[in-house]
Amino acid sequence: MPVGTQGTVKGLTPSDLRAAGTRILLSNTYHLMLRPGSGLIRSLGGLHRLMAWDGPILTDSGGYQVLSLTGLVSVREEGVEFRSHLDGALEFLSPERSMEVQADLGSDIAVTLDHAVLLPLDAAAQREAGERTLRWTERSLRHARTLATPGGYRQFLFAIVQGGGDAALRREMAERTAHHPCDGFAIGGLSVGETKEETWDLTRAAAGALPPERPRYLMGMGTPRDLLDGIACGIDLFDCVLPTRNARNGMAFTSEGPVNIRNAAHTRSDRPLDPHCACEACALFTRAYLRHLHLAGEILAHRMLTLHNVTFYQTLMAAARRAIERGDLHSYAREFTERYRERDGDPPASA
Amino acid sequence: MPVGTQGTVKGLTPSDLRAAGTRILLSNTYHLMLRPGSGLIRSLGGLHRLMAWDGPILTDSGGYQVLSLTGLVSVREEGVEFRSHLDGALEFLSPERSMEVQADLGSDIAVTLDHAVLLPLDAAAQREAGERTLRWTERSLRHARTLATPGGYRQFLFAIVQGGGDAALRREMAERTAHHPCDGFAIGGLSVGETKEETWDLTRAAAGALPPERPRYLMGMGTPRDLLDGIACGIDLFDCVLPTRNARNGMAFTSEGPVNIRNAAHTRSDRPLDPHCACEACALFTRAYLRHLHLAGEILAHRMLTLHNVTFYQTLMAAARRAIERGDLHSYAREFTERYRERDGDPPASA
């Protein structure tokens, strides 16, 4: 899911997103509740209408943004008190409030509020955050069923699985979350301080304890390699700001690895960003031109790299789906890794 | 002509420009010679190829940018010495050098170098700048005929008409310029300090002394009203940064006058920018959404307002062409003015 934090995927129109292969978007409850406000969005017919996007939208619950972006004031059983990153105003988010905001937005998939924590953290606090998340999941799901979206349709509800950095706790939390009548699961609180190996151990622990017939979404990950590793752990859905954020910093994901368009090596290059890509940026423009646009501060550079990176991620996921259908994910992931350098200028893994 | 200063029209792709009704673009010799450099652009096949724009491109000569953007060091008969606005490096532009840069770029229409001045200025200095411009016109045209574009085709050459703020001098300069074997004329050095009434008197003086069979381009103008007034003076071509620059400041041109999207009046507005416009921004998005995007600093706001404004200008020019064909320009201009407010919030002229 490309990330449309503020109700837009950084410079792209709905038709760009379709052309890039996008099937579902993510947007942020936290950001939209603060600006322009979920009541305003409801009064304008909901987020789909506002953005002119008629595909599915998943909204997160805001728990992670409150933890990572704000001056967190207090976490109580009732909810979270925090200061807005925009103007410092005191704000409150509870399970009920999060679901109300998400109903106002009219997303297709709403996510329950969790008590997010950063690692490392002592075992008792991890357990406490996990238990609270379970209680908040129940409150979120119960309240969500009383709410109406602007379009009048029922939202699908995903419950967040927490459990910190302990695989056994992750497994227990997943099993107990799965008892709830929800449509899918969001695995949260990963990539928050633990090693990559731990991330996948914990993901495997949680995903393995979830029922296979309901989709699993791994929140906030990751690199192209992360997506393939996550899929191998049983993950169906991802969201990540890397393709859009890195585009603004001049970084393009390509089938040969990341390209830093600011690199002097591209000054006279008449090659496209990625010869294996069919996006508009690769069909029309050379690296030399995109480098010039980026260095000149032209927003067409951001737009084209964003379009390309979203296309790259969607193409990767489509290829992974086909590989799964062929029963061949493992060799697809190996081939991908062999030609993919982790940094611009590095030799490929196969060299 | 939408302005593509640095080899791009602010956030728009070639297909956006086509959709907006663009038939010809302007790009800036001064900016491109400094960054990325005209030699680099030639080596990549010229500006059309770089930008992936297959329609006509007019390049200006750089004279006005040297005057307005740089630390001007000296104007000698040989040429102009100035300091780059990018890094302060000492640079030199002569009639010959300007034409060489424009040949490297491979524009379809190149413009001769002029000695630009700002008003007010004493009569002797205006005369001197005009006489020098005539000598530079001759040198520019002579040298241009020795040059090859990357594509191998001949450039059309427009000669600049100067003459400062004196209508008689303007007329004389236009007549003497018209003796040169050029394909069209660029009227320069207007809207540089004189009143609007003077602008049109001077434009009329120059245009009236130019042969009707060769196109006349009024450089660097203007508002929608300016375009209609210029057309009434016999002008065929315009360039202006207003549609693109104002878009980035949140200002949209509409059939009812300018709309400042930051205005609180648009907070809950479900209206498009302009109900009479068929651009993607007006087809898809409400003012409330565009206002949210602009206030949130989202580049989609800049892109959509730019697309809209370019569409508005192209639509205006297309309507003026049809009115001329009907022999009805005067009443078209009057009707336009009656519904067009000069500032957001003002009553229309007819009220």
List keywords for this structure.
homodimer, 351 residues, alpha/beta, 13% strand
* Name of the CATH class of the largest domain in chain A: Alpha Beta
Q: What's the order of the H and E elements of chain A?
A: EHEHHHEHEEEHEHEHEHEHEHEEHHHH
Strand content of chain A: 5-15%
Note the overall shape of chain A.
globular
The H-level CATH homologous superfamily of the largest domain in chain A, spelled out, is Queuine tRNA-ribosyltransferase-like
Mean pLDDT of chain A: 95
Which two chains touch over the largest interface? Answer: A-B, 38 and 38 residues
Low-confidence stretches of chain A: none
- Count of domain modules of chain A: 2
Radius of gyration of chain A: 20 Å
Helix coverage percent of chain A:
40-55%
Tell me the strand order in the biggest sheet of chain A: 1-2-3-7-8-9-10-11
Number of helices of chain A: 15
- The N- and C-terminal alpha carbons of chain A lie at a distance of 32 Å
**CATH fold call of the largest domain in chain A:** TIM Barrel
Based on secondary structure, the structural category of chain A is alpha/beta
Give a count of the beta strands of chain A, DSSP E runs of length 2 or more. Answer: 13
Under the CATH scheme, which architecture of the largest domain in chain A would be assigned?
A: Alpha-Beta Barrel
